[in-house]
């Protein structure tokens, strides 16, 4: 798995790996904007970039006055990848709902290509070659929040967080239908040593540090689905990440940990209808010092939806 994650970080070489894994499928929604690449690029009619605008919310860590209990928290079962922290469906506001303090994952569930996948769900089809991982039988304290405190992660809350809009740009990898955002190659973040969008902003840098490590980020987007096109969405990073498609959890990377990857193949979601438009909701939390890794790779032509709601200072 280490080799797979290392390959993930190298950009173009991995693009070929992911493209082969996705069956070199064409995305269903053609765009009129011209894409990058040469005349040999069979995907050159796709847009060169996709810009998605979400909301970043800044928090103070638990050890300072007004700090949130979950930020800079060490899980009682130790740092690591936890699952089951959120419920499998979003609430009426399209926000995650706390389910538990998290169950530590000691080995990943994987598909036949060795990619990490979400632990088994009734609404996600199994495939030949899938292998089961191992999950602790009791919760491991990955979060300490009450339900209402956890709700503050992705809601503007006076005195708890400050927010502003934040856009990221996914770039199509030449010769493939794969769109990538990586903090290692993005012009804004490559010189920052990671995904640090609010250094010196909002509530300020983390206590005694030159960077801001305590924030969340959410995106709402939509796409047109085509069954059999081989669409995939992969995230690699830390800390907590949850991805929902049509309101159902499809990527579950909770906890405080170093970079972890997980992939969803959309053809496994058997309720999706060919040619229909669906929402993809993305939720990210950075809540521990030392690293902030963030990479998306997808064959979906995503489009931002819903105007971000932010605190009055940035409206």
Task: Please characterize this protein's 3D structure.
The chain has 315 residues and is mainly beta. It is 7% helix and 29% strand. It is built from 3 helices and 16 strands. It has helices at 2-8, 12-21, 147-151; strands at residues 49-59, 82-83, 103-107, 109-110, 116-117, 134-135, 161-172, 179-182, 215-224, 232-237, 240-245, 248-253, 260-265, 277-286, 294-298, 303-304. The strands form 3 sheets. Strands 1, 7, 8, 9, 10, 11, 12, 13, 14, 15 and 16 form an 11-stranded antiparallel sheet that branches. Strands 2-3-6 form a 3-stranded antiparallel sheet, with no helix packed on it. β7 (161-172) and β8 (179-182) form a beta hairpin. The longest helix is centred in the N-terminal third of the chain and has 10 residues, at 12-21. The protein is globular, with a radius of gyration of 19 Å.
Give the end-to-end Cα distance, rounded to a whole number of Å.
43 Å
In N-to-C order, the SSE pattern is: HHEEEEEEHEEEEEEEEEE
| Averaged pLDDT | 86
Q: Major sheet: size, sense and barrel closure? A: 11 strands, antiparallel
> DSSP helix count?
3
State the secondary-structure class: mainly beta
Share of β-strand residues = 25-35%
- Give the low-confidence spans: 1-38
The value of Rg in angstroms is 19 Å
Query: How many DSSP E strands?
Result: 16
Gross morphology is globular
Percent helix, as a range, is under 10%
């Amino acid at each position: 798995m280490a080799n797979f994650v290392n390959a993930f970080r190298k950009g173009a070489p991995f693009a070929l790996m992911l493209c082969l894994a996705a069956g070199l499928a064409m995305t269903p929604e053609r765009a009129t904007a011209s894409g990058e690449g040469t005349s040999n690029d069979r995907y050159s009619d796709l847009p060169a970039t996709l810009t998605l605008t979400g909301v970043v919310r800044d928090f103070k860590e638990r050890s300072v006055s007004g700090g949130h209990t979950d930020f800079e928290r060490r899980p009682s079962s130790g740092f690591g990848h936890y699952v089951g922290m959120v419920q499998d469906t979003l609430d009426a506001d399209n926000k995650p709902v706390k389910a538990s303090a998290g169950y530590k994952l000691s080995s990943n569930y994987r598909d036949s290509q060795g990619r990490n996948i979400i632990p088994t769900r009734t609404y996600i089809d199994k495939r030949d070659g899938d292998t089961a991982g191992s999950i602790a039988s009791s919760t491991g304290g990955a979060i300490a929040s009450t339900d209402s405190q956890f709700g503050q992660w992705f809601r503007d809350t006076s005195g708890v967080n400050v927010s502003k809009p934040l856009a990221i740009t996914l770039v199509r990898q030449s010769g493939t239908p794969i769109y990538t955002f990586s903090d290692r190659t993005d012009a804004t973040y490559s010189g920052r040593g990671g995904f640090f969008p609010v250094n010196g902003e909002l509530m300020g840098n983390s206590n005694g540090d030159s960077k801001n490590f305590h924030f969340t980020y959410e995106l709402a987007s939509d796409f047109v689905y085509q069954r059999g096109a081989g669409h995939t969405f992969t995230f690699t990073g830390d800390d907590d990440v949850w991805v929902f498609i049509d309101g159902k959890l499809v990527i579950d990377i909770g906890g405080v940990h170093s970079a972890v990857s997980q992939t969803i193949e959309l053809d496994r979601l058997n309720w999706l209808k060919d040619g229909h438009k669906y929402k993809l909701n993305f939720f990210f939390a950075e809540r521990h010092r030392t690293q902030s890794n963030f990479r998306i790779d997808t064959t979906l032509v995503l489009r931002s939806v819903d105007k971000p709601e932010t605190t009055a200072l940035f409206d």
